[in-house]
Amino acid sequence: MKKKLIKNIFILSLFSIGGVLQAQSSNTASVSNITNEKEGYVKPYKPTENAAKRLQELSTIAKKQNKKILVQAGGNWCIWCLRLNNFIMTNEKLKSKIEDKYIVYHLNYSKENENKALFAKFGNPGKTYGYPVWLILDQNLTLLKTQDTGSLENGKSYDESKILKALSL
Q: In this structure, which topology does domain 51-166 adopt according to CATH?
């Protein structure tokens, strides 16, 4: 009886170890897939850029062109930030409509540069919504709207109609 019990415990232990190893292998493959996916995307965030100065420059351009400023806050470390940028840049309809109404800026949030003062000015939306998050500013850099982009997702991508609606395009 003891031998049978020990044998059953041993067999269960092997299955448990196998499951753990398979889960670890799956997680490693997932991280590797995301790393490979990131490598294929443009990196629009600039950690070394003076974001406050750049927003002032964009404010001047927005006034001349009579546009609002669409700030996508996030970082090159963020797969969803890169996916959103790629989705818009490769969708001619979205890209065209956004460029007609907005000046687009990618506000960096990363270990290298958290842009704390700017994020504080806009209510630290990343803490509430995660990244990416959109800030819609008027020509004077006044916050008009904060948009959670998680609600715009569709699978591992984004939904064109939801983006158009969120940006009132």
A: Glutaredoxin (3.40.30)
Torsion angle, alpha carbons of 156, 159, 165, 168, to 10: 80
Helix (H), strand (E) at residue 148: strand 143-148
| Structure-block tokens of residue 83 | 């996916």
d(CA 102, CA 169): 10
Please identify which residue in the block is written with the tokens 């019990």: 5
| Length of the chain as a residue count | 169
pLDDT digits (tens, 9 = 90+) for 102-159: 999 999 999 999 999 999 999 999 999 999 999 999 999 999 999 999 999 999 999 9
Q: Cα(132)–Cα(37) distance, rounded to whole angstroms?
A: 17
Question: Mapping DSSP to helix (H, G, I), strand (E, B) and coil, where does residue 102 land?
Answer: strand
Report the candidate in 112, 93, 101 with the shortest Cα–Cα distance to residue 134.
101
Q: Residue 71, SS3?
A: strand
Spell out the domain ranges in the chain. 1-39, 51-166
Tokens for 65? 């062109």
Render pLDDT for 146-164 as a digit per residue (tens, 0 to 9): 999 999 999 999 999 999 9
CA distance 15 to 118: 52
pLDDT at 4: 63
